[in-house]
Specification:
- This protein is of the alpha+beta class and 327 residues long.
- It has two domains: 166 residues, no CATH class; 109 residues, no CATH class.
- Helices cover 39% and strands 27% of the residues.
- The protein is built from twelve helices and twelve strands.
- It has a seven-stranded mixed sheet with strand order 3-4-2-1-8-11-10. It has a five-stranded antiparallel sheet with strand order 5-6-7-12-9, with no helix packed on it.
- A hairpin with a 6-residue loop joins β3 and β4.
- α1 packs parallel to α10, α5 runs antiparallel to α6 and α5 packs across α9.
- The longest helix has 26 residues.
Length: 327
Amino acid sequence: MSIFTHNKFNILIFAFSGVLFTGCVETLISVRVHPDGRYTMNFLTRGDSTDVFNRDFPHPSGANWVTKIEKEHEEKDDIWVMNTSGIAEGTLLFTSREDSLIALQHPIQIRRTDGFFTTRYTLRNVFKGRNVYLKYPAFGKSLQESDKDSTRWIDEAFYYMCSAGINDLQSDPETTIDPDLSERVINHIRNTLARVHQKKLFEELENKQYFIDQMLRPFQNDLPVGYSALLSRATDIYEKELRLTSELQDDQFQYRVFMPGVITSTNADTISGDTLKWSFGLSEYINDDYIIEAASIVYSRQRIQIAILIAAGFLLIILFLFYKRGR
């Protein structure tokens, strides 16, 4: 079901209000690496129903995953708890769905490397950067500063959506237009948005289709019939991307890893006993990737003891031969 109603540009309105009024949801991710190289993962998300079920951080699903949902009754508001667990091996792509541009991607890779004396384990989990400062820097600043004058990013965000939508249309032979015309349209959109007052623009964008129609009116004799409608639909995915980034603003992650053997390297925030711990939120991956890494080693005592015995045996034989030769 679409998040838009009656062609209203709800995504920018939502993001605007989301910067001012945000909830909070916490997700605990636990990874336990087993000696055979497989690993158990558990996702535990707590928050109100809007935060838990808004799909900004979807739990894995499928035959290998079990999800339980419970509701905890509190004095003020009910708290929803979603718990998902499963066992896997190798590499998992979270998420590899059609809406991967929108959903937060966090692929994990765990490797087991066998040697004669040791077995090494490595873990790498990447929370893909949202590239906010590359796409709409003013929006990123509003997110991190909770800037109440957050309408200042609307022209920048809408320009990015339109230019990205036009580039998508250009990549499809059925919707492509002359490259020079495409460049002129993009420049015109940039100049038009630069001349509109931010708060006035916020009001105008309540009807996205109408606003795009008005912006492209100077090109009505050059563009194919219905091009503005195509552009409006092409921006939908980028609107959803912006909404999800806004929803992730107050999501906090607690990450726990348990590795076999001795930890040899990690970028964990803290180490408590055999537990590696990370704590992070949107600010850590708002632009660049946030990477979780750990490595451990397990020594084979039996093989080391056998090797020592064999070496000692050879040494005794050599000493005996030298002794015989000296006699």
